[in-house]
Amino acid sequence: MTGKINMTGNSIRSLIEAFIVESPLNTMQTRNSDPAWDQSLVGFASGSDPIWTQYKEYVGPFHWTPWEVFNQNCSDTPANADQLTVISWILPQRQDVRKSNRKSGTYPSEEWARIRVFGEEFNVALRLHVVKTLQESGYAAVAPMLTPNWTIVKSQRFSYASSWSERHAAHAAGLGTFGLCDGLITQKGKAMRTGSVVAKISIPPTQRLYSDHRAWCLFFAEGTCGKCIDRCPARAITEAGHDKEKCRQHLQRSREYVKETYKFEGYGCGLCQVGVPCEAGIPVKAAREAVKTGIKPPPPPPLA
Ligand code: SF4
Ligand code: SF4
Question: Is the pLDDT of residue 212 over 80?
């Protein structure tokens, strides 16, 4: 490589979109080769955004800042935090996949389980593709989830957490806020998967059009809904939040079901992500308005 190729936020968006359209890995591996994904949302966050140190306090000290993960893995390219950008994307579930899982009462539909496995394989390939393209263009980059030392850590507050959370990266990059069930509610809803890459590149950050990390969930914003509580077959969601251990055990049980019923090695659930008001969009009207106008709303008054 001889020189740097100029890359912008728009060119990175186009890179991701093109990979979704053109990659043969974008498949559910069904007989008629349905694609796993057909669109994306992309956002950017600065490596020096104070939110990363807040995550250290809220999630745990083990959660990497972008600077930490970059310097562990790209040590031959020194960088300060403010020279780094976190590129985050959302892959919203397609309508027919959501529709199929809406009918499920205990275990996932075949389509949903296929996305959990083959759709995520595509997401891994997308991370690698973004890193490789950035590197070939002259920008050092790393996909935190694919680093050898990414790990799951026991956490007193959350049962367990990880050294890099894709959902937290997406939240930092203006792509959504957390729901009662812990899922990230995005402009295309909560039924989605997400990925990210940290790179030494300067891209203006995406504005976070929310006043707090739960602003797009009806339960926290308006004191209503709670539909995800009833959707969960494992009783892992209550008004107190999401019990990760119960959820994990249910996902484990789904492996046998998927193998016996759909005849492939897979798993999944996501019942709390469909058949709920946040399935495919932002359910809070004021939040939708904020996104439409681009004006960040003030913090909501305390609920009575
Ligand atoms: S179903 Fe309702 S309570 Fe649950 S995350 Fe979505 S908006 Fe929030
Ligand atoms: S993924 Fe399934 S088990 Fe886990 S919280 Fe959602 S509905 Fe419950």
Answer: yes
